[in-house]
Design a protein that fits this description.
Pfam families: Sulfotransfer_1
CATH class: Alpha Beta
GO molecular function: sulfotransferase activity
Protein name: Sulfotransferase
EC number: 2.8.2.-
CATH architecture: 3-Layer(aba) Sandwich
Oligomer: single chain
Structural class: alpha/beta
Keywords: Transferase
CATH superfamily: P-loop containing nucleotide triphosphate hydrolases
Number of helices: 17
Number of domains: 1
């Protein structure tokens, strides 16, 4: 892989454990500190920013680095915390809606639910955002809900060692790529020029994708879910789409808030699933016109949400290349993917 590096030779896998450590171990991580750190890191062309930087073994958008470093410095998991882990464009918005609705179902009537007026990203914050506002953390009511795109190996040690639970949602690599390409095209500044499907696909197959490579990200959570199934729940986007009610029930049980027999009889699982469905969220006014991030409008989070849309974009040669990469990286892991409906 051709990597554009700084002028001196460095080891991209150990950089943050040695040379970059001095640049992140300050109480105030300012613009100058970020510039110095970025100068040490290998970089590649970015999807929605000029570059992605190889930090702790994953490709990171530079705007996220201060928050990630802040999380590593300040965050301390509680046993009741629930961490939602996803690769970008793998169903993050849907998972946030479901988990919020399930865990807060005693607090809100469905007819007056916060999801009707708030985007899921406003209700379940990313760790790299919330830890920059560390003073607000004590006000979070248990179970505290946080989201992350970090690979398992890069999570704060307190997350891995505490009693908190991790829910990982994985989407097949073909649809993850297509969804990512469409999304980041919208978030990409005009002065960077367009990002063609072919160029993005080549980057993706080489692992250059936000918080990727894809295979390293999913494999870390997959292995941990096999070793500690009470700690990590590994869900597949395609299974959740195919049999939503079964997996919503499974999700609630894993998080320690199982549905009662009465709730099941009253159809609450179905009502929550409908509230959080792609079709319902997409038509809400807040998700048509609102903005939860400075980079894109909320409507960018709701394109199609289908399984198998990749067939409308990828050539047979692209499919062959990606299948070969996935087999090479994940073959033998016991992690099959459903790439069609």
């Amino acid at each position: 892989m051709d990597i554009v590096e700084s002028s001196r030779e460095i080891n991209p896998l150990t950089i943050t454990k040695s040379e970059a450590h001095d640049h992140q171990d300050h109480e105030c991580f300012d613009d100058d500190s970020l510039t110095k750190l970025l100068a040490l890191l290998p970089k590649e062309k970015g999807w929605s920013s000029p570059h992605l930087y190889l930090y702790n073994g994953f490709w990171c958008p530079p705007a996220h680095l201060p928050g990630i470093i802040s999380a590593n410095r300040h965050f301390k998991a509680q046993d009741t915390d629930i961490i939602l882990a996803t690769l970008p464009k793998s169903g993050t918005t849907w998972l946030k809606a479901l988990v919020f609705a399930i865990t807060r179902r005693q607090h809100y009537a469905l007819s007056q639910h916060p999801l009707l007026t708030s985007n899921p990203h406003d209700l379940v914050p990313f760790l790299h955002n919330v830890t920059l506002l560390n003073d607000d953390l004590p006000s979070f009511q248990p179970p505290r809900l946080f989201s992350t795109h970090l690979q398992y190996c890069s999570l704060h040690e307190s997350i891995k060692s505490s009693g908190c639970r991790i829910v990982h949602l994985c989407r097949n690599p073909h649809d993850t790529f297509i969804s990512g390409w469409h999304f980041f095209k919208k978030a990409r500044p005009n002065d960077l020029g367009p990002l063609s499907l072919e160029e993005a696909f080549d980057m993706y197959c080489r692992g250059v994708f936000g918080y990727g490579p894809f295979w390293d990200h999913v494999l870390g959570y997959w292995k941990e879910s096999l070793e500690r199934p009470d700690k990590v729940l590994f869900l597949k986007y395609e299974d959740l789409k195919c049999d939503t009610l079964v997996h919503v029930k499974r999700l609630a049980a894993f998080m320690g808030v199982p549905f009662s027999a009465e709730e099941e009889r009253e159809g609450l699982i179905k009502e929550i699933s409908r509230l959080c469905s792609f079709s319902n969220l997409k038509e809400l006014e807040v998700n048509k016109t609102g903005r939860s991030t400075p980079f894109v409008e909320n409507k960018a989070f709701f394109r199609r949400g289908e399984v198998g849309d990749w067939v409308n974009h990828l050539t047979p040669e692209m499919v062959e290349r990606l299948n070969k990469v996935i087999e090479e990286k994940l073959g033998g892991s016991g992690m099959p993917f459903k790439t069609g409906s």
